C-alpha cells in the first residue's frame, strides 16, 4: 500500500503567497529588458548640416526639455568648429555622418563617395572620440554605391521619415515651422530639421513644450531603433527614402 505525504495547509498557503509576491518582480524584470521605445511614446529629432552658429542655442533648448537628439554633421564644419562638435557630444546627443561637404552622392564616382564618408568618420572620431554609426545622404539621395560604402563603415542609412522642410526658404517662418513640426510629429517618427536655420531653432521651445505635454520622449535615432535587427548599409526605419536637403 503506497504511503501519501500530506503537506500542511499553512505550508500550501505560504507557497502560494510566495509565488504571488514573485510575479510583480518577474514582470518588472521583463519590462526592464524591453527596449525603451516599446513602452514609451518616442520621437527622434534630427538636425542636419552643423555644427553652425545656432548650435549652442539649440543645445540649450534641448537641455531645458531633457531632449536627446541626433546631429548629422558635415565633416568640414566639424573641422572648422571642433568646440561646437564637442558640445554636442558632451550634451549626450548622437553624432551622425552627413558627408564631408554635402555633395549629392549620386553625382559622384565610387572613390569620391568613399572619401566623403571616410573623411567625415575620421574627423568626428578625432574630435569627439566617438565613431558614428548613422549616416544621412545629402538630399536623401542614395544608390547601390552608397549602400556598399556605408556597409563597409558599419553605418546605417537614416534619411528620416518626416520633415519640416525648413530647407525651403519660403517656409522659414517661426510660426509656420512650429505648426509644421506639430502637424508631422507622431510616435516613432524620425523628424528631419536643420540646425543651420535660425527659425527652426527659435520654433523649438514651443514645439518641445507642446510635444512634452502630449507625453513624448525625445530620443536619439539609435534609441528609437533599439531592439531591431539592423544591417549596415540598409535604410532605417524601413521605408522609401525621405527627400531632404
TrEMBL record:
Enzyme class: hydrolase
Keywords: Hydrolase, Metal-binding, Signal
EC number: 3.-.-.-
Domain NodB homology residue range list: 41-219
UniProt superkingdom: Bacteria
Endpoints of the signal sequence: 1-27
InterPro entries found in the cross-reference section: Glyco_hydro/deAcase_b/a-brl, NODB_dom, Polysacc_deacetylase_ArnD
Protein name as annotated: Polysaccharide deacetylase family protein
Organism lineage string: Bacteria, Bacillati, Actinomycetota, Actinomycetes, Streptosporangiales
Amino acid at each position: 500500500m503506497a504511503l501519501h505525504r500530506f503537506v500542511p495547509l499553512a505550508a500550501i498557503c505560504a507557497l502560494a503567497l510566495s509565488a504571488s509576491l514573485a510575479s510583480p518582480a518577474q514582470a518588472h524584470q521583463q519590462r526592464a529588458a524591453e527596449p525603451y521605445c516599446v513602452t514609451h511614446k518616442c520621437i527622434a529629432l534630427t538636425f542636419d548640416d552643423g555644427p553652425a552658429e545656432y548650435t549652442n542655442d539649440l543645445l540649450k533648448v534641448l537641455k531645458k526639455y531633457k531632449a536627446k537628439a541626433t546631429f548629422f554633421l558635415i565633416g568640414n564644419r566639424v573641422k572648422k568648429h571642433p568646440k561646437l562638435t564637442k558640445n554636442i557630444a558632451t550634451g549626450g546627443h548622437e553624432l551622425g555622418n552627413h558627408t564631408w561637404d554635402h555633395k549629392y552622392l549620386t553625382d559622384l564616382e565610387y572613390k569620391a563617395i568613399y572619401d566623403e564618408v571616410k573623411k567625415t568618420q575620421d574627423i568626428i572620431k578625432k574630435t569627439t572620440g566617438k565613431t558614428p554609426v548613422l549616416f544621412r545622404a545629402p538630399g536623401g539621395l542614395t544608390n547601390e554605391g552608397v549602400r556598399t560604402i556605408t556597409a563597409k563603415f558599419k553605418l546605417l542609412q537614416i534619411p528620416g521619415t518626416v520633415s519640416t522642410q525648413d530647407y525651403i526658404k519660403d517656409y522659414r517662418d517661426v510660426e509656420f515651422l512650429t505648426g509644421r513640426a506639430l502637424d508631422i510629429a507622431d510616435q516613432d517618427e524620425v523628424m528631419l530639421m536643420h540646425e543651420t536655420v535660425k527659425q527652426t531653432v527659435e520654433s523649438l521651445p514651443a514645439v518641445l513644450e507642446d510635444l512634452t505635454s502630449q507625453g513624448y520622449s525625445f530620443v536619439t535615432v539609435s534609441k528609437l531603433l533599439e531592439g531591431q535587427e539592423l544591417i549596415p548599409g540598409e535604410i532605417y526605419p524601413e521605408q522609401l527614402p525621405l527627400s531632404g536637403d
